[in-house]
Model the fold of this input.
Amino acid sequence: MIRSVVIGCGSYTPAKAMKNAEFEEFLETSDEWIVQRTGIEQRHIAAEGETTADLAEHAARAALENAGIGVDGIDLIILATSTPDNTFPATAVEVQHRLGMKHGAAFDTQAVCSGFVFAMTTADQYIRSGQAKRIFVIGAETFSRILDWKDRTTCVLFGDGAGAVILEAKEGAGTSEDQGILTCQIRSDGSHKDKLYVDGGPSSTQTTGFLRMEGKEVFRHAVGMITDVIIAAYGATGLNSDDLDWFVPHQANKRIIDASAKKLRIAPEKVVITVQKHGNTSAASIPLALDVALKDGRVKRGDVVMLEAMGGGFTWGSVLLRW
Ligand code: UT7
Done:
């Protein structure tokens, strides 16, 4: 059986780190409220003129260096973003161009905060069906561009960044002992579309629009949806929380992460949390967190890693892999 194995990982955050205290200058909010309700202490903000493709390119180059390969062997780029440089073409083709790739194909995928999980799931299908041997999966966002900076209920939550992994086809035995992606579980339910959305778009308003969220409603659904797809991953593989070495969740709110881990009986020391440094970077949050845990030596070859995300749509999903 063909498995999709991670052979490289990289990430990038813009130079400017914006601390919570900076919001106190123009909003009725406080560092204390933000930390207590979300765990966020700072977020990175792209410089003027710095785009999603810029962030993605940095992360992609870091992943190539980490894998010790060039772009020659890459067949496909799948880039998850809700903040593309342009309505079209896909930001992925801009990244393909900048990396000097004339071969293969590149496209964007859009599942908001679940984007990286949906992109990994798509990539895994291409690899297991034999259509691609090596795939770039990138999550890259500049959410600072779609925030209403006068709305304290949303603008303090999000940040900019990018992360990338390279997946490679490797032969496995078809058991949960295999290296690589063991199962992917994705879901969506459009009946929740008005709880987290952007109030603009080319076809509706001909504007980009701003992010709108009923935070409490999203929070109310998050833990149930996250645990649902993780339990489905356990069902598909025969593994359980005790088998996990690392839990690398989407980084939206530390309270959501803690509650999910508690419900699933995942030990706190196995949970990778970077929300304090990055805020919610939507599709970029999982590969950013993965890269932090890889570079600081936590995630090692052979480790069992659970990724999960939940976001606008609603969309939600999990990827269970052996590193
Ligand atoms: O990536 C996936 C999508 N996003 C999420 O997963 C986010 C999900 N939601 C959340 O993380 C939380 O619901 C929030 C962090 C957005 C809000 O936390 P909460 O504990 O649900 O607070 P709340 O919305 O119930 O607001 C409590 C109070 C309200 O005041 P009143 O009505 O009690 O007087 C808000 O107006 O806090 C107020 N508030 C703030 N106060 C200071 C809301 N935002 C702020 C703020 N600073 N930035």
Observations:
- DSSP finds eight helices and 13 strands in the chain.
